[in-house]
Structures are given as C-alpha cells and as structure tokens.
Amino acid sequence: MGTACLTVVLNKEEQEIVWVYVPQDGYPASFGRILADLLSGITIVDGLPAQQTDPNIISVIDELPTMANGLECLAAEIVKYLKEEPGYVYLYPPGTKGLYVAYTYVVTGQFGEGPCVRVYDDYYKSEEAGLLFDGPASDLHAWIDSRDDESPHDEST
Fold first, then answer.
1. Taking the model in full, what pTM does it have?
2. What are the residue boundaries of the structural domains of the chain, listed by start?
3. DSSP letters of 71-126?
4. pLDDT digits (tens, 9 = 90+) for 46-75
C-alpha cells in the first residue's frame, strides 16, 4: 500500500468543498511539492477581470492562470492540475468514511491573497499533535526543504 494523502479545500466559510484523494506518494517531499508548485503562484480573487478582445492587451489574459476566482475555482484548479489520466487522483464527497490516509493537506484562503495550507500527519489522532505546517502556500517549499522526510512520523513543525 502506498502513502496516501487527502487534500481538503475549504471555502471562505471554512466548509469543505471537496476531498481529493491520492493513494500514493502522499509524503510532503512528494505530493507536498506538487501542491506547492501549483499553489505558490496563485492569488485568490473575487471576480476575474473581463477578457479583452484587443490583441494588444495580453497581460490580463497572461495573468489568468495565476488566479483562482474564489476557493471553489481553486479546488477545480487543483483537480485539473493533478488529473492527467485514469487513476492516481480520486474525488470524494466531504465526510466519506473508510479512506486510509497518511497525510492531509487543508487548503484555505482569503480574497486578494495566496492560498494557505495546513499539513497534518494523520498518524496522530488529534489535529494539534499531527499539525506539521500551517502557513502560506508560498512557504511550503522552504518548509519541505527544511525537514527530513525519512521518518514517516516526524514531530517537528
């Protein structure tokens, strides 16, 4: 069995939008990097700029991949980024029972800012004990680089 992980995206009311289940490579050094690659360059906005038809106004169109129109849009961007072929990525409704996961990544955010991520080691039974990282997605790479992923239940934060 691989090292499964779950990514939970919360809306601005902190309600779960979707569960993205990945049954392998869930360690921060693997899946965490993939998530950091995507989220580090995104700003959450409340409404996208109007698409321009003037070919001289390319800058607005070029910026669109770096935006998510709310957290629901960000959830869709995560799925789009991860899903390339059958398998590897599965969607489950929030509250699904019976999924084994080693790590949980919780994605939140506010309008006008980049996403934030909390990383939990699910070996620990309480959220507080299992919290490994809580901060901006832009800091996720540095945190991953600073830790030793050889231990599956690292207690450092």
1. 0.83
2. 1-71+81-114
3. HHHHHHHHHHHH-SSSSS-EEE-TT-SS---SEEEEEE--TTS--EEEEEETTSSS
4. 987 766 444 544 444 443 358 899 999 999
Cα distance between residue 150 and residue 16, in whole Å? 31
pLDDT value at position 152? 52
Cα torsion 71, 75, 76, 78: sign? positive
Cα–Cα distances (Å) from 132 to 67, 89, 97, 112, 154, in that order, read 27, 23, 23, 25, 8
Whole-angstrom Cα distance, residue 109 to residue 6? Answer: 18
Tell which wins on pLDDT, 50 or 147: 147
Torsion sign across C-alpha atoms 78, 109, 133, 91:
negative
